[in-house]
Amino acid sequence: MAALRAPPGGGDVSGLVVTQLQQMLLATCATVEEAKKAILKNRIMQTLMNLHIPIADATGAATVFEIDQKTGAYVFADRVAGEPLFSTNHPIHTYPTPDTFPDVDMTEEHNTFVRQIILREAYSKLKPPFTLDDAGNLIDAVHCSFVDSVKACAQAGERTLTNIKADLSKPEIHVRWYLRDAAPVPGTNHMEDKMSDFYTFGF
User: What are phi and psi of 191, to 5 degrees?
Assistant: First the structure.
């Protein structure tokens, strides 16, 4: 009787998965340029979702690594010096700025393009030097917690599960987690939820 077995790998299911890629970059790269070179030397596996990996270093250089949906090409959307770099869930190399966005319904608050517009508007009200509290305010501006998820263009019951913020001058990150829903916010489609305190991890 022949044994049934699966092939060890191949096609679009071989290579580094996203979690392995992130671990590799953190362990071996100190700059955005080093990270780009490491990515280009490897095959990155993407089978289930869009891929957007923001990468930044202590000099202020930043990029978002994406894989083009049509061609499979690796693309880096680089930060313009002196300008912010926003990443939500659409390909930045295809839709880099609001003037390239399709028409959107602004009531769909979780739509990827709407979230970018919200982020850009919130950022425009901040003044340097920026603080971790400013980063937290940007996070909160696009927090996913809605009473009617479908109306907001989110998945049923979808919630922001984690938030991460960082001061790039320090080797540490601050992370918090979703705990539970609290109550609807009157007059809005927002659901107030309970998040943990931020916990700081050094590296």
Answer: -105, 120
Are the C-beta atoms of 64 and 52 separated by less than 8 Å? yes
Cα 62 to chain centroid, rounded: 13
- Which residue ranges make up each domain of the chain? 10-96, 107-203
The contacts of residue 12 (CB under 8 Å, 6+ apart) are: 45, 46, 47
Cα separations in angstroms, 47 against 2, 5, 141: 30, 21, 30
Give 115: exposed, middle or buried? Use CB within 10 Å, 0-12, 13-18, 19+.
Answer: buried
Question: Which pTM does this prediction carry?
Answer: 0.87
User: Looking at per-residue confidence, does 11 or 28 come out higher?
Assistant: 28
130-152 per-residue burial string, b: 16 or more CB within 10 A, e: under 16? eeeebbeebbeebbbbbeebeeb
Helix intervals (H) in 41-127: 112-124
Both tokens assigned to 8: 């060890």
d(CA 23, CA 21): 5
Average pLDDT for residues 176-184, to the nearest whole number? Answer: 98
What is the DSSP secondary structure assignment for residue 108, as one 8-state letter?
A: -
pLDDT at 20 over 70: yes
3-state secondary structure of 156: coil
H/E stretch holding 24 reads helix 18-28
